[in-house]
Design goal:
It contains nine helices and no strands. The relative contact order is 0.10. The protein has 188 residues and is mainly α.
Length: 188
């Protein structure tokens, strides 16, 4: 196939994963879909891990990164909404986005998210911790929709809860200092 490229291999793999699931997306299945031998793919991907990293990079590239300099919460909410849209378009992408970024699109996302969190007032350590937590929470908010159980309104309510939680966390700390003490829960 003269037009076989890394981009074509990754796009085909992503489409296949959306149809049959990530666990059934193999180099052999991608090659079959492209009507080439599996060995033909090795000019473009160096094995299953490279295929998965490349698929993740394609998905990361489809996210709309926040434009720096605006309201930190609006930027985070916009990124969450973009993530939702991409995940609804590519249901197999959740485990891909859980992989450590291996390319420039993933790194750009990491950098943008970190910058937003730092600008909001979180420390570097908090920003690193929140990165993983927020990603997991957004995935969890989208998961019911992927199963056809909820709608966008439920997602938006979840995003608003994240906003309240982040604002509360920021308000418990002294400016530029570590997080303040957590309030003890009182028994009901």
């Amino acid at each position: 196939m003269a037009s076989l490229t890394r981009a074509a291999v990754l796009q085909t793999a992503l489409e296949l994963a959306d149809e049959v699931g990530l666990e059934r997306t193999s180099l052999r299945a991608v090659a079959q879909r492209l009507r080439v031998t599996p060995m033909a793919l090795y000019r473009h991907v160096h094995g299953k891990e490279d295929l998965l990293d490349g698929m993740a990079e394609v998905v990361y590239g489809r996210l709309h990164l926040p434009a720096a300099g605006g309201d930190w919460w609006e930027e985070l909410a916009s990124l969450a909404r973009s993530t939702r849209s991409v995940l609804l378009a590519h249901p197999a992408a959740v485990p891909l986005l859980a992989r450590a970024p291996a390319g420039p699109n993933g790194q750009a996302l990491d950098d943008a998210l970190r910058a937003v969190l730092l600008r909001a007032g979180f420390s570097s350590a908090e920003a690193a911790e929140l990165h993983d937590q927020l990603s997991g929470m957004v995935f969890a908010l989208v998961a019911p929709e992927l199963r056809g159980r909820r709608n966008r309104a439920a997602f938006e309510r979840g995003i608003e809860l994240l906003h309240v939680g982040l604002e509360a966390r920021l308000s418990r700390r002294a400016p530029g200092g570590p997080p303040g003490p957590r309030r003890a829960r009182t028994p009901d």
